[in-house]
Structure formats: C-alpha cells, structure tokens
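Notes from the 1:1 (GR / supervisor)

We went over the backlog. Supervisor wanted to see one worked example end to end before approving the batch request, so GR pasted a single chain during the call. The sequence is below; no edits were made to it. Supervisor asked that the structure be written out right there so they could see what the output format looks like.
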Amino acid sequence: MTSPLYNASVPVFRQMLGSLKDILAKTEAHATARKIEPDALLQDRLFPDMFPMARQVLIACDFAKGVAARLAGVAVPSFPDPERPGFADLRERIETVLAFIDGLPQEAFADAATRQITVQPGTPRERQFVGEQYLLHYGLPQFFFHVTTAYALARHNGVELGKRDYMGQF
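Structure output shown during the call:
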C-alpha cells in the first residue's frame, strides 16, 4: 500500500518539476529566437526585493528534495548552487532532484504523516511540524510559490506559455 503522503508529494514534485523543465526550455528557445542574453531572463525579477528566475528554480528544487527527504526520514542532500546558473545548470539541477526523489522508497513514507520534522526556514529560529502539516501547510505552498514565480517571470518576459505548460504532464 502506498502512503498518502508519498502520493501527495513525490508524484506532485515530479509533475511540477517536469513542467518547470519544459518552461525553462521554452524560455531558452525564446531567448535564442529573439537574440536575448539568457542572463537577462534568468536574472529578471518580478520586483526588486524578490529572487530572480534562476533562484526561484533552485529554491523550488530545494523544496522538492527537502520535503521529500524529510517525509521519507532520510538526510536532505546538499547540492551546491552555481554562482550564476544558466539554463543547462538549472536543467541539470531539476534532473538531479528528480533522480533523488525517484530513488526514495515508497515504504519510507509509511509513517510520514506523524513523523516529527524540524526546519529552520531562513532564520535561526526552529519550526516544528508533524509530517502531514509540514507537507500540506508549509512544503507544498512554498514549492508552488517558487514554481509559479518562475512561470510568471517567463510569461512576463514574453515566453508563450499557458496553463497546460504550468500544469505539465499528469
């Protein structure tokens, strides 16, 4: 029997990271066709105090691997971020995270709903969750925020995208 938290996490991360990879491919093609410097798109922000597109992608990947690892009760792997990631770096990161989450055994999620999870979200202050609360009220909203922001940045820059591109294959 598959864990409900496995079903609500790993397949969702897989779907949305796949769509993010496709969005990046369309964004790169857009830049190439219009002779736009890739960094102009990857370093663009919706507002000056927000992270740029490349960082949004990296953070979405961090949430996918971190949430899945914590729910499975395994160590969160550390992947060093490139200083100024390009499209190839971001595709590679997505593939690395997909390989990691695909390698997590479904059985490891058996007790995920009640597993105690501690995180330190960007501050020295710890935050305590039980697994179900962590996934539904923290992990997934954070993940979707960063995927959506990357999509919005691409769309804002003229990349022809629609809801199907955002949703990906399901």
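Supervisor's comment: The domain at 4-167 is CATH 1.20.120.450 (Four Helix Bundle (Hemerythrin (Met), subunit A)).
Batch request approved.
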